[in-house]
Amino acid sequence: TTAAAMVASVESVLKAGQGKTLGQSSVAVFGATGVVGYCAAVIAALEGARVTLVGHNGVERVRKRADEMKARFDVTVDAVDGPDDTAKADILGRVDVALAAAKAGVRVLDRSVLQGSDSLRVAADVNAVPPAGNADVPAKGFGSAAPALAALSIASFAIGVGEFGIMGLLPGVADDLGVTIPQAGLLVTGYALGVVFGGPLLT
Predict the structure, then answer these.
(1) Which of 12, 34, 47, 103 is deepest in the core (most CB within 10 A)?
(2) Strand ordering across the sheet containing 26-30
(3) What whole-number distance in Å separates Cα of residue 127 and Cα of residue 105?
(4) Rounded-to-integer distance, Cα 100 and Cα 84, Å
(5) Contact (CB, 8 A) for 89 and 115
(6) How far apart are CA 159 and CA 132, in angstroms?
(7) Global pTM?
(8) What per-residue string of b and e applies to 164-177 under the rule 16 or more CB within 10 Å gives b?
(9) Are 9 and 124 in contact (CB under 8 A)?
(10) What's the average model confidence in pLDDT over 57-78?
(11) 95-130 tens-digit pLDDT
(12) How far apart are CA 199 and CA 101, in angstroms?
């Protein structure tokens, strides 16, 4: 959900400020060997974006991830090494979007690197632990991602309530149905089985 939220927010900002979609954009993903970066890269590539995975200590790991994405999801992504600010600046000079998804507390892109790119339109960061993955750069105001974030927040809340809300209600449900609490708990199992078998049919 973190990767999906980041990609959805980026596309919302691109549409609002640039009048273009993610599929018309080029995206560099820093930290693409981790789960969030990997998923964000796949989602962006499936949307048609030209995606580049950026390594920090050699191209081998990101190249392996790129090959894995091709095998699993049939998407083609590039892999490059970005070990220093000079290499990162060169990469940012060729993309519209930069996604920072490195491990917590790692500064990926400094202010000078971000501000030095003429082509960069959106820089997103999922790191919630200081320091931020992207340096604190004033937003250039291409639009607001608030509607997309609100929709994702509401959807996440609804899923959580739907899946876990019933647990606190089981004693009342058991009384109403005249069954034991473990038997009423089978309703949760039935719901879960419906998701497992019904989800793939709907997607």
Answers:
(1) 12
(2) 78-81, 50-55, 26-30, 97-100, 122-125
(3) 7
(4) 15
(5) no
(6) 29
(7) 0.67
(8) eeeeeebeeebeee
(9) yes
(10) 94
(11) 999 998 888 778 888 888 888 888 888 888 876 666
(12) 28
How far is residue 187 from each of residues 105, 109, 158, 160, measured CA to CA in Å?
42, 49, 18, 16
Output b/e per residue, 50-79; b: 16+ Cβ within 10 A: bbbbbbbeebebbbebbeebeeeeebebeb
117 with 90: CB under 8 angstroms? no
Cβ proximity of 57 and 82 under 8 Å: no
**Is the pLDDT reported for residue 144 higher than 60?**
no
- Report the C-alpha gap between 79 and 181 in whole angstroms: 53
The neighbouring-strand residues paired with 105 are none
The secondary element (H helix, E strand) that includes residue 168 is helix 146-177
Q: For residue 59, report the phi and psi dihedrals to the nearest 5 degrees.
A: -90, -10
Contact call for residues 100 and 131 (beta carbons, < 8 A)? no
Phi, psi of 146 (to 5 degrees): -55, -45
The pair of structure tokens assigned to 160 is: 């959580």
Smallest Cα–Cα separation from 173: which of 185, 161, 190? 185
d(CA 131, CA 70): 33
* CB-CB contact of 66 with 92 (8 Å): no
Alpha-carbon distance 196 to 141, whole Å? 41
Tokens 């290499």 -> residue: 87
Residue length of the chain: 203
